[in-house]
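User: structure tokens for this one?
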Amino acid sequence: MIQSNFFQHHHIRALLLMCVVLLSVRMQAQSSNARLTMEIRNATLESLVKRLENSTGFTFVYGEEVRLNSRISLQVKQLTISELLEQAFRDQPVEFSINGKHIVLRKREMPKKKERRRFTISGCVTEQGSAETLIGANVTEGRYATGTSTNTFGLYSLTLPEGEVSLTFSYLGFRPQQSRFVLTRDTVINIQLAGNVELQEVVITSQRKEAGIQSANTGSHDIPITQIRHTPSILGEADVLKTLQLMPGVQAGMEGFAGMYVRGGTPDQNLVMLDGIPVYNADHLMGVFSVFTPEAVKNVSLFKSSFPARYGGRLSSIVDVRTNDGDLHQYHGSLSIGSLTDKLHLEGPIRKGKTSFSLSGRFMPTTLIPNAVNTSESYGTHISTDKYNYYFYDLNAKLNHKFNDRSRLFLGFYRGKDHYHYYNDDKPTDYSSSPQQYYTSKARLNWGNLIGYARWNYVFSPKLFGNATVAYNQYRMTLQEDTENRKIQNGNTLERQIYTSKFHSGIRDWSARMDFDYTPSTSHRVRFGSEFIHHLFSPGVSTAHEGNYGTSTTPADTTYRTSINQAQRGFELSLYAEDDWELSDRLSLNWGGRLTLFHTQGKSYLSAQPRLSLRYDLGNGLAAKASYAHMAQYVHLLSSTPLSMPTDLWVPITRNIRPMYSNQYAAGLYYDGLSGWEFSVEGYYKQMRHILEYQDGVSFFGNSTYWEEKVEMGEGRCYGLEVMAQRTVGKTTGWISYTLSKSERRFKDGSISQGQWFPHKYDRRHSVNLCLNHKFSDRIDVGASWIFYTGGYMTVPERQTIVIKSDGSIGQENYISHRNNYQLPPTHRLNVGINFNRKTKHGMRTWNISIYNLYNAMNPNVVYTKQENIYEIFAPGEIITQHTKTTIKKLTILPLIPSVTYTYRF
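Assistant:
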């Protein structure tokens, strides 16, 4: 009995042990056979092991002798752990074995390989359907952990060893596409990417982009056009420059207007370009709107520091706006009717697959009305009639012809104009026999840009791309006033006096540019080229005509010039070269330089401008960057108001006014290890020399006579810290940023503020920007933006002081201790917008409802001072003392403003 029980217990224990072993083996088999889907980017051995341990439950065992030749990047879908490791270690000196729950890694002797030939893969990445080129699309090869990105014209070049390759093409908002083949010769692969509505599944894997967190450049941003279109702005008008004002380090001048002040600079220190051509006046309606129509825009890049050598001519920023090339295969467009402007966009093929056009227009309805406002007033025996109107418009046109895969021709045109006119007619109502006076007055003010260019792209070889451009660029402002005064009796003119005055200013450029893009290997991307610009400045030319007719005296008819300014020419020649160089898996840099010669008034200025940017990958999505850039600027904008006025004057450097120079240093930390997020902390320090400030009491309102005698040259310094968190994919996207900054000026000769440092007008210590977009469904999406920044500075009299004048008399004058001695109050504002989308039989219908300044913050759009006389009376009728009190007044012209916009896309 005892023996029987013993055998029973023995068999039970054996059975249980067998079950445990079988269960363990089954669990191990299930774990080994589990299918994995993941993306591995630029991983070290340590980061790869850690990720696989967290994902599978296996434990890795290896010694110090186990090392990788290069980092591992690959995308896998539904592979077992064994298949994944085989693919990861295929070209690495590592072998593995799976023992239970442990994976043992050992050093493997790599067979000596013959030097394999290398071939170049090149081509163009476009949008499926429209064939629109994609700027900054990513091209990566997983086996060799290398990649590149497309240039401004959608072209790429990648050199790899012969053999099997696996390319992945990706772009934000598009489905990634893979291409696997055996590379045996130079190969051209043109890829079309399809749109991806599920943005949360899109992963950006770029290792080298034109701008952004993955590039070597500091202070650079790529702004998606979808973000611009969904950022609420005044009157529902999506605006490129208003969206850029929400980036860290970028501020508006006056609240609600489009002027850009980047890292302590001024508006004329920003190089704003349309398809590579400078735009001298980028604003409409005194800065409320920019000249860029969103429907015509494809890509926007912003550089605040570490400027690539291919850019030059300004100190503070580069804004590179690229427009649509036109759909090569089908016609489509959009029609938008808004509260202020109407927009129309059309594009499509002229010859399918070969030639296309893109046409965009924006205009105010008042463009078609000669006199939008008409008022009349009677007084005595006369009636006075006032008629006036204002409008602006933009017109973008582009032709794109594809000769073949290697050669393309682009023709571009832009015309933008603001127009204001006023007409006054004062005439008698009683035409009796007695003489009557008849008076008319007309005033017209026009200003705007005209740009035309021709561009030829040619692929000389799989590694060399060329781009030749010739362009004409003009900004012109004209002001004309005509008056006529007639004495009439019985229908006959007894006397007639006329006066006509004309004033115009502007700048015209003829330019020719040649750019080359050379990719000798996967670790180098070299750009080099040259540019010549012929500037013609017209700082301000006035003429007048006066006539007296019908009097008893001899008729007088005189034409004369009231301005002595003459047109001034400038010749600018630039050479540049830069290299995107990946020194190792961790370290990359962009280095180069720009050499510029500017000749004017018989004097030449030569400037060598070195540029350097470094990026070091610290691992796990963390990177450090540092940069230095030296910049030179040869033009100035004279303005006496914080608004963008048509009377602002562009003037060149002269024999006496030297070029402005800047040195900017920047460094920061950047993190993108959290899927769908990007974080950055960046500091900068900028020095500026030969910057201009107006002397006290000087005005340039449309008059540049002797302007050199009215300005002073000094120095400036700006420094700050910018923090940004950005969500790049998913239903909710946007960013929040904080900027801590300081900007100062000094004029050592003592002409301004006794030679001491004083704050810049727009020195705002703290700035917070929030921009959010959320897509509830295909039918509803919302956007919101909120800003807060501390006030800028203005100059106000502090008190009255007694002075003895040159004639011996005693008087009172305002005492000002230093320029910009008063800080304005903070500004904050919330904008919201919602889109209601509905698909129709032939397109998409969208209603947009936006509210600018939702909680009606009474921000100071205009600030000015007013002086009041204060009297102190000792006894009735007896004045004892009198003094002047300065009061600061603010004017809010942009309160809560709702708007509705209807858009139909077809």
